[in-house]
Write a structure and sequence with these properties.
With about 475 residues, this protein is an alpha/beta fold. The protein is built from 15 helices and 20 strands. Strand 4 and strand 5 form a beta hairpin. The chain binds N-(aminocarbonyl)-beta-alanine and zinc ion (ZN) (3 copies). The site of one zinc ion has 3 residues, from loops. Its cofactor is Zn(2+). Belongs to the metallo-dependent hydrolases superfamily. Hydantoinase/dihydropyrimidinase family.
């Protein structure tokens, strides 16, 4: 078996930095230590050898708002690898009335083209006996332990509180993790109708229709419902202090809740929507919308203090042509932005280089924490003997200016256009295959494999033990008065 050795670098993990070489055979790490040799040598002098990034939130070729997101599993995972991300977790979305297993079959058909490993979250977009039954198969046979619920997109993907509670209870029973898109969909629908009626039709009104309160309210509601059901909760795309505050409070009270900010919300603000060019503003329409500095500072503080756990992209890329469906009515602009290729360099540049986070924290929030929460650690998210060789050799001196003209993503613009980044992959390895070699893309379509993530992880077991111990019980009494006397 041929071997690859990454030589002369500094290994940076979620908790440690040290000088060592890494040997890779058969797609896995087989040795870590000094002075290793191998058939192929990758020079990591002056670079950091880190677990490849895991993006826990993507929508590749997603049917949404009357169209499909433009990056599919091929271009999306090529973009990921180019930016140092070696695994993506995409959302399998059943249409209303469609079974979960049926939807998974559709996602399997699309994902065969992936250049890097991938997994799915299952979405619960409606509720019924079939969904209840199939949840067990999804967790136990398919190895998918995370289920997303949309509290927004009324009339399309949204589920109500009774459905949320029923689904959360089922997940608690099966050892799954609940996820929520937390925005109050009823209020958003009302505000949208009012804004349109008043002639507020431009992309900036998308932001007006989704103030931070709709996110704070829904986040708190989801946390309380999850606590009553006894299920761990993962809140996707946390964009505001209002939502972060609810998560921070819940965690300080011992509730099992994780928050996921996006690189877009950390680095881009609401002024994008006031740009005089309609296309510029519409290209940045996503839910929740970009916000002001107060919210951005809160998200950074959450990552620094540990109240927020991971950074994702919610990569859901639409072309300018697709965005133009919403000319004259902002509610028809397909919601979503790209970022897969830029998450790691942008976070390094705006996080590590500014001193807001350490290199070890960078690894934790882009990879290791994600693998632990989603229950695929240490296969993923680790530089350890036996782990998959999903590795990024990170050159902290390499620079570029982000521009759509040289990106891997299929769309015709980039929301980070013109941003200078310092810190880029020298090599990206996906299960040992060198997919990025000093700026040259050498991806292999179909190389990606599905990653199973079993249910009943350690947090599920701890939480269900605690909930059993503290469950309401009948009081054992010493005497019961006779009735009818
Ligand atoms: O605007 C967004 N976030 N689009 C993708 C779908 C979702 O809500 O995650
Ligand atoms: Zn969402
Ligand atoms: Zn999403
Ligand atoms: Zn920047």
């Amino acid at each position: 078996m041929s071997s690859t050795v990454i030589k002369g670098g500094t290994i940076v993990t979620g908790d440690l930095s040290y000088a060592a070489d890494v040997r890779i055979e058969g797609g896995r790490i087989t040795e870590i230590g000094p002075n290793l040799s191998g058939d192929t040598v990758l020079d990591a002098t002056g670079a950091y050898v880190m677990p490849g990034g895991i993006d826990p939130h993507t929508h590749l070729e997603m049917p949404f708002m009357g169209t499909y997101s433009a990056d599919d599993f091929e271009s999306g995972t090529r973009a990921a690898l180019s930016g140092g991300t070696t695994m993506v977790v995409d959302f399998a979305l059943p249409s209303p009335g469609q079974g979960l297993l049926d939807a998974l079959q559709m996602w399997d058909n699309k994902a065969g083209r992936a250049n890097c490993d991938y997994s799915y979250h299952m979405a619960v977009t409606w509720w019924g006996e079939q969904v209840f039954d199939e949840m067990k198969t999804v967790i136990e046979d398919r190895g998918i332990n995370t289920f997303k619920h949309f509290m927004a997109y009324k009339g399309a993907l949204m589920v109500n509180d009774d459905e949320l509670f029923a689904s959360f209870n089922r997940l608690a029973e099966l050892g799954g993790i609940a996820m929520v898109h937390a925005e109050n969909g009823d209020v958003v629908a009302e505000l949208t109708a009012k804004l349109l009626a008043e002639g507020n039709t431009g992309p900036e009104a998308h932001a007006y229709s989704r103030p931070a309160q709709v996110e704070g309210e829904a986040t708190n509601r989801a946390i309380m419902i999850a606590d009553m059901a006894g299920v761990p909760l993962y809140v996707v795309h946390v964009s505001s202090e209002d939502a972060h505050e609810a998560i921070r409070r819940a965690r300080s009270l011992g509730k099992r809740v994780w928050g996921e900010p996006l690189i877009q919300h950390l680095t881009l603000d609401e002024s994008e929507y006031f740009h005089p060019d309609w296309d510029h503003a519409a290209r940045r329409v996503m839910s929740p919308p970009f916000r002001n500095k107060k919210h951005q500072d809160s998200l950074w503080a959450g990552l620094m203090s540990g109240s927020l756990s991971v950074v994702a992209t919610d990569h859901c890329a639409f072309t300018t042509e697709q965005k133009r469906y919403g000319i004259g009515d902002f509610s028809k602009i397909p919601n979503g932005t790209g970022g897969l290729e830029d998450r790691m360099p942008m976070l390094w540049t705006h996080g590590v280089a500014t001193g807001r986070i350490t290199p070890n924290e960078f690894v934790a929030i882009t990879s290791t924490n994600i693998a632990k929460i989603l229950n695929c650690y240490p296969k993923k998210g680790a530089i350890l003997v036996g782990a998959d060789a999903d590795i990024v050799v990170w050159d902290p001196t390499k620079e570029k200016t982000i521009t759509a003209g040289s990106q891997q993503s299929a769309i015709d613009y980039n929301v980070f256009e013109g941003h200078k980044v310092k810190g880029l992959p020298r090599f990206t390895l996906t299960r040992g295959h060198v997919a990025v070699h000093d700026g040259e893309i050498r991806t292999q379509e179909g190389h990606g494999q599905f990653v199973k993530r079993p249910g009943n992880g350690t947090v599920n077991r701890a939480l269900s033990t605690w909930k059993d111990l503290t469950a309401p019980r009948p009081v054992e009494r010493t005497g019961i008065p006779a009735t009818g006397v």
